[in-house]
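Annotators were shown the component list below and the corresponding predicted structure, then asked to write short factual statements about the assembly.
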Amino acid sequence: QVQLVESGGGVVQPGRSLRLSCAASGFTFSSYGMHWVRQAPGKGLEWVAVISHDGSNKYYVDSVKGRFTISRDNSKNTLYLQINSMRPEDTAVYYCVKAGISGDYFDYWGQGTLVTVSP
Amino acid sequence: EIVMTQSPATLSVSPGERATLSCRANQSVRNKLAWYQQRPGQAPRLLIYGASTRATGVPARFSGSGSGTEFTLTISSLQSEDFAIYYCHQYNNWPPVLTFGGGTKVEIK
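Structure shown to annotators:
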């Protein structure tokens, strides 16, 4: 069965950096695009970034461009999100999400990792 | 940016009743529309993709319809486990700038 397990969250001061990881199993990781979606406390869902199956294409929501970098290591079945210059508004649960077979809908989600940006 | 608007924000329904949730896009997204369910403290779960295709394991009481700018999620007979927040999501544009609706909370009446 598909499993996505995020790690790397925690409490970080504004301006600092953090790297989130997502270990994938139960499917052919190198065949699928992968996304990060976040959810601020008590708020709705916000798509953050996508990376193509081979890592050649990456896209971001405008609010994180230049600060976030999505990457993947298909030899390790692992997805990453590097977050730099962290801001309080980056506080959220970050979900690792697998793209569907026929489009960029989200067919499997990890349990999420909480990132809190606080002095 | 494609803006997704869900209505109502909150829907109060009795168990066994029918629930109808709406999602509107400010421009056509063809049939590139998905619905997700999020229970408290859990990650979202895919219910519907392609506007009307149920995901694996989703009960038949969930159905999706619509195309273009107007979409509907219908839950034919609400069960206790269906009280949750539901989000629509468009995935039509390229390069991808994927957007969600604000959510509809289905609560027990």
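Statements collected:
1. Chain B touches chain A through 23 residues (CB under 8 Å).
2. The first strand of chain B starts at residue 4 and ends at 7.
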